[in-house]
Amino acid sequence: MLLNKWMTALGLGVSLLASTALAAENKIITIASLEWPPYTGAKLPEQGASVAVVKAAFKAMGYELRVNFYPWSRAVELGKNDPGFAGYFPEYFSDQLAKDFELSEPIGTGPLGLAQRKGEGYNWSKVADLASKKVGVVQDYVNTDEFDDRVAKKQQPVDVALDDTKNLLKLGGKRVDLAIVDKNVFNYLMKTDPQLASFQSALEMNPKILEDKKLYICFKKGAKGKEWAKILAEGLKKIDVNAIMQKQLGN
């Protein structure tokens, strides 16, 4: 009789531990990202400004965020198709992405602009003015709707790089006339990336930005993605997104 009671108690204890472990596992969300400092990066404080915001928002809702870093195209593919990931980030809005993913509420903003060579400043007022210039872009990055539409219609010459550093190297090497890049990313890379050291005094941002872009998480399409987006939205209401961004960006 005592043995039976002990076995019953042991069974209940094991079941309780299993249930607790499952509940804890269900409170973890894994998202794919890229090395895109100062917004995201494995070795950055808090893993970057955007990660800090999303971690704080999920923490406010009782969830733990885990971020795995990959080259951008791989992060997008994993976020869309791998069941081990809830999605990927940070991303700019596009109509096509809104069809393919459940987009979160904005998790911050970033000023998207054009890097140029000093002494070759270019005055422009509308995107169509850039048609005479070969513009460096990064593979699979969303830029602005108008710019990307003009590229698709072959109205805007571009040269594709694998990442922002390579894009800026092409600009410094005079292989492109301008390079699309987030201003904060440009400033960070020019200060810290040894590959760009020789161009620190040669490159600058054009004073006119393309757009102050809102940043989003792309969750997988479907009910689970909608659930994650809803949880994040509630968490974002509980934190000061701008304060966290500015602290991490050092602005």
UniProtKB/TrEMBL annotation:
Would you indicate the residue range of the signal peptide? 1-23
The entry's protein name is Transporter substrate-binding domain-containing protein
Asked if the Swiss-Prot or TrEMBL record annotates the protein with the keyword Signal, the reply is yes
The UniProt keyword set, sorted, is:
Signal
Species lineage: Bacteria, Pseudomonadati, Pseudomonadota, Betaproteobacteria, Neisseriales
- Organism domain of life: Bacteria
